[in-house]
Amino acid sequence: MQSMEKGLVIVYTGNGKGKTTAALGLALRSIGYKQKVCMIQFIKGSWHYGEMYSANILKPEFELVAAGKGFVGIIDDDKPLTEHKKIAQQAIDICRKKIQSNKYNTVILDEINYAVNMKLVKLDDVINIIKLKPYEQNLVLTGNHVKNKIIDLADLVTEMKEIKHPFKLGIKAKKGIDF
Ligand code: ATP
Ligand code: MG
Predict the structure, then answer these.
(1) For residues 64-102, b (16+ Cβ closer than 10 Å) or e, as one string?
(2) Is 176 part of a structural domain of the chain?
(3) pLDDT tens digits for 31-62?
(4) Burial class (CB in 10 A: 0-12, 13-18, 19+), 127
(5) Is the dihedral of CA 139, 52, 98, 114 positive or negative?
(6) Alpha-carbon gap, residue 107 to 97, rounded angstroms
């Protein structure tokens, strides 16, 4: 009988830069073995950023779903909160489908911790999603301010801690580094 390897629940949180970058690093490593990775982005959506283009180069192994639309309450946001909640709810439904499809070795829920924190998605919905993941599948959740209940269910939790960030020195976000 073939032994099944338990997939991990991985959390990247904290105030330092590198949470989404770390998740993308895992994706790149995994895709090297022709494993399938799906990243569902909760907050991003209407902007252009590198991984959007990488998804084209790395298909069919890498799939990227931009489920969030804009940054809630930040910069160019012009949508009412109810609209964001509706979009976030749809994003949760996408996650459930993708995870249960059992097509992927790893599913990444990018910035989902923010979505929970902003009460765009229910913590219980995320917990249920974690519980229904296929045994062998890895699930990555990124975003600062992760809830303790999610930490309790995780196998690996890393907190990125800001020591220095160029933003504080007035250096703007850089192509290929920040987006
Ligand atoms: P990245 O996508 O670069 O790995 P992240 O996922 O850790 O960053 P997020 O909280 O998702 O960080 O923030 C998104 C954007 O904010 C990114 O462009 C990132 O570079 C920037 N950022 C992250 N951490 C900081 C910080 N401590 N100070 C200022 N800007 C930050
Ligand atoms: Mg991020």
Answers:
(1) bbbbbbbbbeeeeeeeeeeebbebbeebbeebeebbeee
(2) no
(3) 999 999 999 998 765 567 899 999 999 999 99
(4) middle
(5) positive
(6) 11
Domain of residue 17, CATH code? 3.40.50.300
Within a domain: 2: no
Does this model's pTM top 0.70? My answer is yes
Q: Distance of CA 133 to CAs 14, 70, 162, Å?
A: 24, 28, 31
Looking at the predicted structure, is the pLDDT value of residue 1 above 70?
A: no
Q: Whose CA is nearest to atom 25 of ligand 1?
A: 17
Q: Are 89 and 112 in contact (CB under 8 A)?
A: no
Residue closest via CA to ligand 1's atom 18 equals 178
Q: Which atom of ligand 1 is nearest to the CA of 144?
A: 10
103-152, pLDDT tens digit by residue? 999 999 999 999 999 898 999 999 999 999 999 999 999 999 999 999 99
Ligand lying nearest the CA atom of residue 21: 1
Q: What is the pLDDT of residue 162?
A: 97
